[in-house]
Amino acid sequence: MNIDRALLMFAGIMILVSLLLTHFVHAGFVWFTVFIAANMMQASVTGFCPAVMIFRKLGIKKGCAFE
What we know:
InterPro entries: YgaP-like_TM
Organism: Marinospirillum alkaliphilum DSM 21637
Transmembrane segments: 7-25, 31-55
Oligomer: single chain
Domain Inner membrane protein YgaP-like transmembrane: 2-56
Keywords: Membrane, Transmembrane, Transmembrane helix
Structural class: mainly alpha
């Protein structure tokens, strides 16, 4: 698995978690979903993503999107 695929997996998991929290805990957790979407949009424009830095430190090999 490379960083690109790990980031997609992480984003998908976080979106599902936030939607479950919104449904079962409190409607205010919808803002967590908004935050995730905004972070994904800014990462696509700037190429900067904090999760990628963490994945690099964990030793996950590079992909082609985040170099």
